[in-house]
Design a protein that fits this description.
alpha/beta, YbaK protein, 3-stranded antiparallel beta sheet, 8 strands, globular, disordered N terminus
């Protein structure tokens, strides 16, 4: 890409939002990943949807898009994946990226890069401007659970298959202290 930002109404980004679920399932099937589909009432909040899915909240993969400024003119975006009961340590991401400023991406930018609405962001990046960074704590369980680019459908995915397919950067990005975003 050219470094210029495009608005979320860009046709290619609109298409990405519509096909994130199909792209995910196609990728998983092509790679013979071990996963289960879980249908449930529409919900995007990790604490609540974990109950619907029937697993402890720490088994969820909470996915947030973070913007890190590198100097005055360059911003990089990261898909931060932490356990469902954890908070993202923004300063750890800033340090990892060598940044000068860090914040959560605006909802419009996050949804455009992730290809789905907030509350359904996948732990996979299908956008070249979104780098996946996973906290090692996510890997502590046999399966990870996440909304599958839909509020009413989730996946339970084998953790080893997740690592194999996402090929994320592993970095401690969980904030110490109390739970939350």
């Amino acid at each position: 890409m050219t470094g210029q930002s495009t608005a979320p109404s860009d046709a290619s980004e609109e298409a990405a939002v519509g096909d994130a679920y199909e792209r995910l399932i196609s990728m998983l099937d092509a790679a013979q990943a071990r996963y289960r589909i879980i249908d449930h009432a529409p919900e995007g909040r990790t604490e609540i949807v974990s109950g619907y899915r029937g697993h402890p909240v720490e088994c969820a993969a909470k996915c947030l898009v973070v913007m890190v400024k590198i100097g005055k003119r360059t911003s990089k975006y990261y898909l931060a994946v932490v356990s469902g009961d954890a908070r993202v340590d923004l300063q750890a991401l800033k340090t990892m990226a060598g940044g000068t400023y860090v914040s959560f991406a605006s909802p419009d930018k996050a949804e455009a890069l992730a290809g789905s609405i907030s509350g359904t962001i996948l732990p996979f990046s299908f956008h070249p401007d979104l780098t996946t960074v996973v906290d090692p704590g996510v890997l502590a369980h046999r399966e990870i659970f996440f909304n599958a680019a839909r509020l009413d459908r989730s996946l339970a995915l084998d953790t080893q298959d997740y690592i194999r397919l996402a090929n994320p950067q592993l970095c401690p990005i969980t904030a110490s202290g109390d739970s939350g975003s």
